[in-house]
Amino acid sequence: MDIRVFHKKEGGIVQLIDKEKMQEWPVELPLIFIEYIREKQLQKYEDTNVRKEISNYLDEILKDVAIPRLISVLEGNDTNEIISSLQRIEELSKKNVEMTRPISSYLKNLLKNNDKRIVKLAQNISNNFDKADRKKELAKKRKIMREKENLFLEGKISGEEYAKARKEYLTLKE
Known about the structure:
The protein contains seven helices and two strands. By secondary structure, it is mainly α. It has a domain at 1-74. It has a two-stranded antiparallel ribbon with strand order 1-2. A hairpin with a 5-residue loop joins strand 1 and strand 2. Helix 2 (29-41) packs antiparallel against helix 3 (48-74) and helix 4 packs parallel to helix 6 (116-153). The longest helix is centred in the C-terminal third of the chain and has 38 residues, at 116-153. It is flat and about 65 Å long. The N and C termini lie far apart (54 Å). The model has no long low-confidence stretch (mean pLDDT 88).
């Protein structure tokens, strides 16, 4: 069977491709599929049971298909296949770094590889993770800074407290 069917309470169905069929896909596609369904589709389903079943199925795909296939390629001996996969993963990480997060732990081994092209690609992906993490941290600090600014303008905190928070924010921003 090439599809997996989920039945809604009101009688409708949701069809997703079967995980066995995904074995034929390029190595990074199951990750893209999982992330797309989680980010763009899952919330559209009003039936919470269907949502939960689909979420569990996506976890199953990640555990049974996406990660093992990716690992087999990244830990394999075919340099061209590794480079090809890393190039596609690098492009993905530029567009949506969260889609490629599952491979972060495997990048450490690739950074020790003898092939400079593999090391460069792994480093680029790793840098994209670092940039995304830094962006998240900066967004958190920006939110805190706005709150401190409002408190300062309302006279609820001193100028010293505001200056300290501003200094921390600017230090992180640089």
